[in-house]
Amino acid sequence: MTGSETTTAARELLIRCWLFKNLPGKWLETLADLAQFRRYPAGTIIFREGEECPGIYVVAEGRVRVYKLAASGKEHILHFADVGMTFAEVAAIGHFPCPASAEAIEECRCLLLPMPEVQALLNQHHDLCRHLLTGMTFWIRQLVGLLEDLVLRDATSRLAGYLLRFAESVDSKTVVLPMSKKDLANHLNLTSETLSRTLRRLADIGAIELPDHQKIQLLQMQKLQAIADGTPPAEFE
Question: pLDDT tens digits for 68-85?
């Protein structure tokens, strides 16, 4: 891929990304010019918690999981970054070490905006800072939602809410899980046994159907929404 082709591909990817899509054209071009595409085989650790942040990543192909490890070795998955999503953006903009680790869970191709160049632009151009601050509000909303799920919702509400959000993101009532059920349970702070039991309960009341190991058919959206909101139907009690 020539330099001009790389810049064009980078710009098209940045436009799809919530953090950058509202940037004026001049800033999209500037960031696209300094961007680098990198490939990671499945299982590659892209960076580890505590390491110097390489920069802002945008997923172009594949899927990345971002996770933290407790001192005990227990792992908690913070989120999955799919095509068009960013990761390490907070550390790169805030100029601090990586607060979590990132792993390619399938072969990935990512766009990297190197931190030294990003920091130089932020130090010189307040207009760019303002636009990126607006884009960062999306990430803050996601974080608040994650905290709300973990603190205020039980296992069933968490799972129902996840299924509804996923169905909305793919515009389909058929959810094909993009990760193993073990990873999904970890992300929702559940045990694998609790996840399986909760899926079965949702199927038993007719809210979902489980045609195979990774596929979930959402049948009764209103019932799932009530469960996600903490007001489950009587038959679920």
Answer: 988 888 888 888 898 889
